[in-house]
């Protein structure tokens, strides 16, 4: 059975795939991006080629090269690099899983196939098992994101007996707001050393209360430092401070959600906060509008979420 160096916990940034203005992958900034996550945001785990990374909009060969670049540039800097290898084609998914093992990734994750969909738990497990078997030495995570895949099989149901079928199963990345389902996943698997990684950044504190052992999300790219403060407060049982941090993060996410928020907007915000150009998204996604960027920038400033002093001004909203 696969055993990771240590359990995946804490914050995991769902990495963006940087692109040039012509829509090609901009590999040249990935080294700088690793340093930014570690040094400025205190985030040492990454989830590559997922939703935020536009993994399903990249070719298999691009996905392989992106994974390689993150593993290479993250060596001796990052704790864990998990590669999302989910695809509609089982063969492609297996190829990506094998490749992740070859390059020395720390784990693989897979979403449910979302075009010809599995119609029940056993059918889904069968697919996942075939992928996991292609990388038998790597920890395997199921990436549950029903709003995007349309596969509504409850995670609680899926986890029931999963290690009998997938011995390398190590945890769940849960990108859904159903805290009953999430809580039951934790409750029914207390004897097992699974990682329970929550994926709805604006609700992370509630998931911590339910037993989340970590979190994977897009906002940890640029709000990692702030979210780490919340995790520390929670760890120290300072729930009032933890709640203040969560409310503060919610104010930002709530603001951008109302403007229309997704991968394109994440790319624009990350460019703004980190100064590293993330470029446009790949079609069918479209660049974030100038209006969105200006509004998001003003909100980031007012919440004191901009780390760079030259982007700050004095009008902060109280976040304590
Ligand atoms: C639907 C979606 O993109 N959800 C994000 C969240 O981090 C999300 O951006 C955040 O909670 C704001 O709503 C992550 O769960 C996605 C993720 O981890 C990934 O990119 O693989």
Helix content: 40-55%
**Largest sheet, order of strands side by side?**
1-2-3-4-5-6-7-8
Radius of gyration: 19 Å
Largest sheet: 8 strands, parallel, barrel
Brief synopsis:
This is N-acetylneuraminate lyase. Helices cover 44% and strands 12% of the residues.
Task: Compile the SSE list and pairings.
Blueprint: E1 10-14, H1 30-41, E2 45-48, H2 60-74, E3 80-84, H3 90-103, E4 107-111, H4 121-132, E5 140-144, H5 146-149, H6 155-159, H7 162-165, E6 169-174, H8 179-187, E7 195-198, H9 204-210, E8 214-217, H10 224-235, H11 239-259, H12 263-274, H13 290-302
Parallel strand pairs: 1-2, 1-8, 2-3, 3-4, 4-5, 5-6, 6-7, 7-8
The structure holds ligand SI3.
């Amino acid at each position: 059975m696969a055993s990771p160096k240590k359990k995946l916990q804490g914050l995991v940034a769902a990495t963006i795939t940087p692109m040039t203005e012509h829509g090609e992958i901009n590999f040249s900034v990935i080294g700088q991006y690793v340093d930014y996550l570690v040094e400025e945001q205190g985030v040492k785990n990454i989830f590559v080629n997922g939703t935020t990374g536009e993994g399903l909009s990249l070719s298999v060969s691009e996905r392989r090269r992106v994974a390689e670049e993150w593993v290479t540039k993250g060596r001796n800097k990052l704790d864990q690099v998990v590669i999302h290898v989910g695809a509609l084609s089982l063969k492609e998914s297996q190829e990506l899983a094998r490749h992740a093992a070859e390059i020395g990734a720390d784990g693989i994750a897979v979403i449910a196939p979302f075009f010809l969909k599995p119609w029940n738990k056993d059918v889904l497990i069968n697919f996942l098992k075939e992928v996991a078997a292609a990388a038998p030495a790597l920890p395997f995570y199921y990436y549950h994101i029903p709003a995007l895949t349309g596969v509504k099989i409850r995670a609680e149901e899926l986890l029931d007996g999963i290690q009998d079928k997938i011995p390398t199963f190590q945890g769940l990345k849960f990108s859904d707001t159903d805290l009953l389902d999430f809580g039951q996943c934790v409750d029914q698997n207390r004897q097992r050393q699974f990682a329970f990684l929550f994926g709805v950044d604006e609700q992370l504190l509630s998931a911590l209360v339910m037993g989340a052992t970590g979190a994977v999300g897009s906002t940890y790219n640029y709000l990692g430092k702030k979210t780490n403060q919340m995790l520390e407060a929670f760890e120290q049982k300072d729930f009032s401070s933890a709640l203040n941090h969560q409310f503060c993060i919610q104010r930002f996410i709530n603001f951008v959600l109302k403007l229309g928020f997704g991968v394109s907007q994440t790319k624009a915000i990350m460019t703004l906060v980190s100064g590293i150009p993330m470029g446009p998204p790949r079609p069918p996604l479209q660049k974030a509008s100038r209006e969105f960027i200006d509004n998001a920038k003003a909100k980031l400033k007012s919440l004191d979420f901009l780390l760079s002093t030259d982007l700050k001004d004095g009008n902060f909203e109280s976040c304590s």
